[in-house]
Batch of 3 targets.
Target 1
Amino acid sequence: MWMAGGGSKGGTIYGETCDFSYNIVKDPVHIRDFHATVLRLLGIDHQRFAYRHQGLDQRLTGVEKAEVIRDLIA
């Protein structure tokens, strides 16, 4: 994943995969954590940002706990 501007820290490499880019060997990031980080960079609180779908409140980061990756924010 590549990110630029908008408050993301420039020149940062976060995480590492094996030589074949198949297995994560350092600093794994779940997609809901990445979504929470991008929403934070957009100025949106991912825990409060919800929408109604089939009578239930849904969040873009899902129902499990999502963490903002502080090392990616400038």
Note: The mean pLDDT is 87.
Target 2
Amino acid sequence: MKIGKATVPRTAICTSDEHTIVVRGRDLSKDLIGKLSFVEHFFLLLTGQPPSAGEAAVLNATLVAIAEHGLVPSVQVSRMTLAAAPEALQGAVAAGILGCGSVVLGSSEAAGRFLAQISARGKSAASLEAAAREVVREYREAKQAIPGYGHPLHRGGDPRALRLLEVAAEANTSGHHAEIARAVERLLPEVIGRALALNVSGAIPAVLLDAGYPLLALKGVPLLARTAGLVAHLLEEQQRAIGFVMSHAAAQAINYDGEAPPDFKPSKDG
């Protein structure tokens, strides 16, 4: 039994014959290699159209903003995986990417959907601020965090978010979603009783959606960016290994509080 829509299977991304590889309607060898940057090619693959200079600049800025974030859990698991399986660089990268979810790297997607919800509500609300106020209140009533706002370190303003908004303005792509992001930031003290600054996870969808980037592919930006960071960490892991050091440090940091035989004495080495 067939499950799903009865449609003809097809793709519009790539095909080839004996002489030509076609990507989004263009000859890969003649039209793309050596002529498009990787960021431009990525945009073309997603949308079917090459980006304008401004769209490419904004996408590039978002990738740079979050490619590296130190020894976060996804980086630690990636480095420890390589320490355990040094022949499997691809497995170590995959291990790090598999750790990207709603807490780490998924927040940009959630913030994008939040901004899109306000944008859709704004078509029937009295004003953009009224729509933002309604949606924020609904999130609070549902006991949901406001995605894209607040940061444990950058309480006065995330410098990455501020710079991304500047890049969008410089590239002449700043528009409706950036306006929504700023409106929410202004309204938060009134609606939830405290100020929360726009963070990088909120700025990324704001500038990307204004630059024509697809909402459904938002998670792809942090995934692509962080993959680059993981490869850098894995190269360093091969040259200056710390994977087993981190593993040992974890064992030392965690106290065992389960049952044990009467004569058991914990090792000082963990």
Note: The CA atoms of residues 84 and 243 lie 8 Å apart.
Target 3
Amino acid sequence: MTSILHPPVEGAAFDAFMETSAPASHDHRQWQPTDDSMPALYLSHGAPPVFNDAHWMYQLFGWSRSLPKPTAILIVSAHWEAAPLALSSPSIGTRLVYDFSGFGRRYFEMTYQTPDASALAAQVTALMSDLEPVHEHPSRGLDHGAWVPLKVMYPYADVPVLQLSMPTHDPDKLFRIGQQLRPLREEGVLIIGSGYMTHGLPFLGRESWEHNAIPGWSRDFDAWAAEALAAGRLDVLADFRRAPGMPYAHPTVEHYTPIFVTFGAATDPSAPPTVVIDDFQMGLAKRSFEVA
């Protein structure tokens, strides 16, 4: 099997996706006020190797197609930790942040020219006013925790996208942020917590990088999370520092904690979510889900 880190042609799988699958997005039905609220997602986002992985792109695109096309997207990414709470630039064609290294030049030249998101920025600022002020960051673009998966899910960049910083890793505080944002779902806004269910990059060996060998700590943490999710045990998920596989699964926790924004935005946070992706890549758990 050819590793997605070293494909014969960088991005060839993405090119094939754009030719064969992406055109279906043109006919993607837009969310309407008569629809139910949009769900909120926790998404294991991946990095540029996603564009070499036809299976992963199939999963992401299929997920987006199972939902109405949102009126806008608000995403909290592991890759923007900033306090006080801040919003990315809402301007049309917001620039991308290429916050990675060691990948092919092509990925540093990719674009994602999204529409103006000023209306969403105003809504978020108003909703958060009772909790804490929101700073609009005029030069901050979309980092790879946002644009990499969205470039597959909504390949023609025809949905306004705004990124919200993650000001803390405290589960209760992140949950309250999600609660404040919950009304956006009733207007067709897709709220996404973007991270990765396991992210112990320093502890991956060559067999994981090249052949997706799954370390015990990654499998154990994912199994623990799967059980807690199936039981609707948010209290267990909040006690993640004592989970099996820690601290190897998350030597730093920014890829896990967006999960609490997602649950805060849920109508019933105690209801088990719908798991959409539950496999592994490069030994890391891609477990991703949606809440109603």
Note: The first strand starts at residue 40 and ends at 44.
